[in-house]
Amino acid sequence: MDGQSALGALIADIGGTNARFALCASEGRQRPVLTGVCEFTVAQFASLAQAASHYLAQMHAPRPRRSVIAVASAVTGDEIKVTNNDWSFSIANLQRELGLDQIRVINDYAAIAMAVPHLGRPELEPIGQAVAPAAVRRADRHYAVLGPGTGLGMCRLLLRQGRSVVIDSEGGHVGFAPSDDYEIAILQCLLKQHARVSVERLVSGPGLRNLYAAVCAVEGVAGGMNTPEQITAGALAGTDAACRRAVELFCSILGGFAGDVALMYGAWDGVYLGGGMTVTLLPWICRGEFRRRFESKGRFGSLMQTIPTFAITHPQPGLLGAAAAAADWQE
């Protein structure tokens, strides 16, 4: 092991609301080991460099010379703008500011996809029950990874000869396609506020607020909830019909979108749900409407019934996957 490997790597997972950091060391293809995991709100710092420097100052360990940073953004060049917060940075400048010899920036859902091969059964919650297809010997395994948080992330995962091939995208920004008259009414409400309504406008933290406001408008009731946490709490308590309806719609639309993604990616071997909201809403996701909408794909319904769906319950899949990317990069 060389000197850089011995020092490990700085690992970060930067979302729209939270910034998570860790140090990792990995040998070979074993599951990466995360240490010093810390989480901050993005609003605490003016920039990623400031947040990372603050984190490293707290660590009583040799300063790492390598880093893998997952960001909620398309990564297409040196300049990065995080989609749902005010942070932006140059990768080259960040490398200089942090005194790194090497830096790699990847999409946040690419990181979660890299974590999937390292997840054990206790870190995965099955959603529904897929009908096992006839056994077919295939060299490659095809998956989709997606989920709601501050935004709606997604990517494709291909496992080929024991290695992960990840194709990231910004597919959460595709247009929302309503499936019935009620969802058409929801869309009409949102079109009064947005020139274009993407799936992320409904299936995300801000999206749950949008859904709740639209439900209240369609139902002709006054809305008193202002945050996703309040809406979720109202649904859990069973005291607010609009909250319950918004959460049920959220999970139903998520299921339909996940099924569409499986068809687009050919993810016949499974779909994994990550994101901060997945675990919070898991009781509703598992009640059946998610899976019904997932499978409701007309002539492909019988095929959809064979595709398993899982919720990722690992507390930091983005950090685990970014650490896996660091180990893969090292080889």
Mind explaining what this structure looks like?
The protein is of the alpha/beta class. The protein has two domains: 3-115 and 316-330, ATPase, nucleotide binding domain (Nucleotidyltransferase, domain 5, 2-Layer Sandwich); 120-312, Hexokinase, domain 1. Helix content is 38%, strand content 23%. The chain contains 13 helices and 13 strands. It has helices spanning 3-7, 48-58, 91-98, 108-115, 181-191, 205-219, 228-237, 241-265, 276-280, 282-285, 289-295, 301-304, 317-330; strands spanning 9-14, 18-25, 33-41, 66-71, 79-81, 88-90, 102-107, 124-127, 140-148, 152-160, 163-168, 271-273, 309-312. The strands form three sheets. Strands 8-13-12-9-10-11 form a six-stranded mixed sheet, sandwiched between helices. Strands 3-2-1-4-7 form a five-stranded mixed sheet, with helices on both faces. Strands 5-6 form a two-stranded antiparallel ribbon. A hairpin with a 3-residue loop joins strand 9 and strand 10 (152-160). Helix 5 (181-191) packs across helix 6 (205-219) and helix 7 crosses helix 8. The model is unreliable at 1-6 (pLDDT under 50).
What does the secondary structure layout of this molecule look like, with pairings?
Elements: H1 3-7, E1 9-14, E2 18-25, E3 33-41, H2 48-58, E4 66-71, E5 79-81, E6 88-90, H3 91-98, E7 102-107, H4 108-115, E8 124-127, E9 140-148, E10 152-160, E11 163-168, H5 181-191, H6 205-219, H7 228-237, H8 241-265, E12 271-273, H9 276-280, H10 282-285, H11 289-295, H12 301-304, E13 309-312, H13 317-330
Parallel strand pairs: 1-4, 4-7, 9-12, 12-13
Antiparallel strand pairs: 1-2, 2-3, 5-6, 8-13, 9-10, 10-11
